[in-house]
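2024-03-11 09:14:02 DEBUG pipeline.ingest accepted 1 chain
2024-03-11 09:14:02 DEBUG pipeline.ingest length=238
2024-03-11 09:14:03 DEBUG pipeline.predict start
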Amino acid sequence: MSTLLDEINEAHGGLERWQNATTIEADIAIGGPFWELKGIADFAGSAHVVADIQRQHNKLTQPSGRVMEFDKDADVATLTEPDGSTERLEHPRATFSGYTFESQFSAPQAAYFCAYATWLYLIESYVFDYPGVEIAAANPWVEDGTSWRGVRATFPPTIDAHSRTQVYYFDPEGRLARLDYEPEVNGGMPTAHYQPRQVSASAFVVTTRHEVYVRNPDRTPDRSQMAITLDMTAVTVR
């Protein structure tokens, strides 16, 4: 695993470079039918994201002035509307207990989902080096004749991820190509999350196109519908 992790770190900009960085920001565009299904259609669209790299804290600001923020240290999600009204959701993950794929989100829950998920996508495989994250080899996945190497990551309670254990697949160059999980906020629906486009921002490699599908029992994606899309531009790392 150490050799593979070295390759992954190098392919995404180098571990030391990520360890010395503090902030990453980007403009994002969120789409897909998921948002309407969950009763939060107005959370899709564009936003500017500013995220801490060394701790799980992220803030998204929409053009309307709506602000979504999640701070894992405090375990609080905050939603501030354009009129200045604010809702706080303490221990937000616990509020999804018993949710199914059909359950709708409240506005603060939607803010939490957007914030924690985007944070994970911005720092990608660097999260492997966070304290308490356990890494193990997973079976490879073959897609279109190419074998992708698998890494199973199990997250500690100090990090909010889609599911406690997630499987990451890396292409022959060590770039992240796909991520499989069963999101706790969505009833554990098996998910295949593709990452077909990446850019280098000041030598940091960041995925700028995310495509999320429901996963079939054989682990193939159900390509009849792309549930969520996320595009990133103007990525800056400091």
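2024-03-11 09:14:41 DEBUG pipeline.report The chain has four helices and 13 strands.
2024-03-11 09:14:41 DEBUG pipeline.predict end
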